[in-house]
């Protein structure tokens, strides 16, 4: 382990999480925003559904760990919503089981510590035409935007019932004109613009949450932020650059 010890933010989910550090993804953007404030830890598993997530909860989030995460951002639902295959194989998870799995994940994460906060991301929309073209028959599965809506609404309902924070990505992304091409690369995964929406919504929820201590980046201490004679010099004085970017103000709130 390296020090000093920082708060840990864990991103837990399927490919939407695994790929979040590529293509100017939302995980990478969060790591940039929270530089010197929190460690963004990736636990993404491409192709996974909520059933597999429940099976490894104790391994990814052991209850006896010496340090527990301050925040866990969870995404499962898109793969669950894929329509059932005739063989019974594949990632589909029936809606009733998906609902129960989200509950199990939430209960486990909230039991880690009194200070562990949780945010769920719902299934985002998919562009069916783009998805069919990107798969080109390589994978025998059907994923529709309406099935994503159903699983998204189910996730939101569970979170409302458990008083948990949730972000409705299915609705948020479709507010963008030409969202199919502006927000998605292959009908499913995010462009840089799509990731900006995810980051904006996450920061909004964190800012509005009545959490103590606050996990909003502006409210968190910056590591080694004291002034130093070794800081850059402007007009005969040093500039403490630990709290701001010399190229301009941050676009994030």
UniProtKB/TrEMBL annotation:
Highest taxon listed in the record's lineage: Eukaryota
Region (Disordered): 230-253
Name used for this protein in its record: SGNH hydrolase-type esterase domain-containing protein
PANTHER family, per database record: ISOAMYL ACETATE-HYDROLYZING ESTERASE 1, SGNH HYDROLASE-TYPE ESTERASE DOMAIN-CONTAINING PROTEIN
Domain SGNH hydrolase-type esterase: 11-196
Pfam families documented for this protein: Lipase_GDSL_2
Record InterPro entries: Iah1-like, SGNH_hydro, SGNH_hydro_sf
SUPFAM superfamilies on file: SGNH hydrolase
């Amino acid at each position: 382990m390296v020090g000093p010890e920082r708060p840990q933010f864990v991103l837990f989910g399927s490919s939407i999480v695994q790929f979040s550090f590529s293509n100017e993804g939302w995980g990478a953007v969060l790591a940039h925003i929270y530089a010197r404030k929190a460690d963004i830890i990736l636990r993404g598993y491409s192709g996974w559904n909520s059933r597999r997530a429940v099976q490894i909860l104790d391994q990814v989030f052991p209850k006896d760990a010496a340090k527990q995460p301050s925040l866990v951002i969870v995404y499962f639902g898109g793969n669950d919503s894929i329509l059932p295959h005739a063989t019974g194989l594949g990632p589909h998870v029936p809606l009733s089981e998906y609902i129960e799995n989200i509950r199990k994940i939430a209960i486990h994460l909230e039991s880690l510590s009194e200070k562990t906060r949780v945010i769920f991301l719902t299934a985002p929309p998919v562009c069916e035409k783009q998805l069919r073209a990107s798969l080109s028959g390589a994978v025998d599965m059907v994923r529709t935007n309406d099935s994503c809506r159903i699983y998204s609404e189910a996730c939101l309902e569970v979170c409302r019932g458990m008083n948990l924070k949730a972000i409705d990505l299915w609705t948020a992304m479709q507010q963008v004109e030409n969202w199919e091409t502006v927000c998605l690369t292959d009908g499913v995964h995010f462009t840089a613009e799509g990731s900006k929406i995810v980051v904006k919504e996450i920061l909004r929820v964190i800012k509005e949450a009545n959490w103590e201590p606050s996990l909003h980046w502006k409210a968190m201490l910056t590591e080694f932020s004291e002034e130093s004679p070794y800081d850059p010099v402007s007009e005969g004085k040093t500039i403490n650059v630990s709290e701001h970017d010399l190229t301009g103000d941050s676009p994030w709130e």
